[in-house]
């Protein structure tokens, strides 16, 4: 359940479309007849939660005065002419509200590709470290410490900024890293890569 009412977070809602990014498989993304009635962007963001700040929520369409005055048959919409999407204020999400989706193979790839880096931070590449990263991702997403990298048929791609506390020889140091995720509906995040780089 959400708590802490504020207009710092929004949910994009299209009351004429109940299709969300979660309805499509990860490999192919948004496909099919639904795209004849709704654009890919509107499906990708439908029912998703975003911090109400620039670069943290989908950009709305900027209409020129000429477009507004000369296009009387089209209705001004949030993302395009005749768009049904709206931004509604929601309660600020808490860590309990967020659900992570981790497709098969993501943890194995992390251990194969980043083990040396993980050990340099003073950790072992194991499930305990994965749980630590997951906790940081959830916490920092709720704090709005992320940015949108792009919107495509696969959804809204974000980089969540996480502070990893060093251990062992790296104790008392903080390593700022990025973790790559897709925003899914109603507080879900799907993992692209646990560690996508340092900042």
Protein architecture, described:
With 199 residues, this protein is α+β, with helices and mostly antiparallel strands. The protein contains 5 helices and 8 strands. It has a 5-stranded mixed β-sheet with strand order 4-8-7-6-5. A 3-stranded antiparallel β-sheet has the order 2-1-3, with no helix packed on it. Strand 6 and strand 7 form a beta hairpin.
Overview features:
five-stranded mixed sheet, 5 helices, 199 residues, disordered N terminus, alpha+beta
Write a brief structural summary:
The protein has 199 residues and is α+β, with helices and mostly antiparallel strands. It has helices at residues 34-37, 40-45, 65-70, 106-120, 127-142, and strands at residues 9-13, 49-51, 86-90, 99-101, 146-152, 155-165, 174-184, 188-198.
What is the number of strand segments?
8
Strand order in the sheet with the most strands: 4-8-7-6-5
Reported for the largest beta sheet, the result is: 5 strands, mixed
Number of helices: 5
What oligomerization state is this entry in? single chain
Order of helices and strands: EHHEHEEHHEEEE
Helix residue percentage: 10-25%
Q: Structural class of the secondary elements?
A: alpha+beta
Radius of gyration: 19 Å
The backbone outline, from C-alpha atoms, is: elongated
Topology, please?
Elements: E1 9-13, H1 34-37, H2 40-45, E2 49-51, H3 65-70, E3 86-90, E4 99-101, H4 106-120, H5 127-142, E5 146-152, E6 155-165, E7 174-184, E8 188-198
Parallel strand pairs: 4-8
Antiparallel strand pairs: 1-2, 1-3, 5-6, 6-7, 7-8
């Amino acid at each position: 359940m959400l708590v802490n009412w504020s207009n710092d977070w929004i949910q994009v809602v299209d009351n004429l479309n109940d299709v969300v990014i979660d309805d499509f498989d990860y490999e192919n993304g948004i496909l099919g007849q639904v795209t004849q009635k709704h654009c890919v962007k509107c499906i990708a963001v439908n029912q998703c939660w975003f911090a109400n700040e620039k670069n943290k929520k989908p950009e709305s369409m900027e209409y020129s005065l000429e477009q507004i005055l000369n296009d009387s048959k089209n209705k001004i919409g949030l993302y395009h002419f005749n768009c049904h999407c709206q931004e509604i204020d929601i309660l600020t999400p808490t860590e309990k509200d967020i659900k992570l989706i981790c497709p098969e193979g993501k943890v194995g790839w992390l251990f194969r590709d980043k083990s040396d880096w993980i050990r340099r931070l003073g950790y072992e590449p194991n499930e305990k470290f994965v749980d630590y990263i997951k906790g940081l991702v959830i916490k920092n997403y709720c704090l709005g410490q992320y940015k949108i990298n792009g919107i495509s048929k696969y959804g809204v791609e974000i980089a969540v900024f996480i502070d990893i506390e060093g251990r062992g020889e790296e104790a008392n140091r903080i390593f700022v890293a990025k973790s790559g995720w897709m925003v899914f509906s109603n507080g879900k995040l799907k993992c692209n890569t646990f560690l996508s780089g340092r900042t």
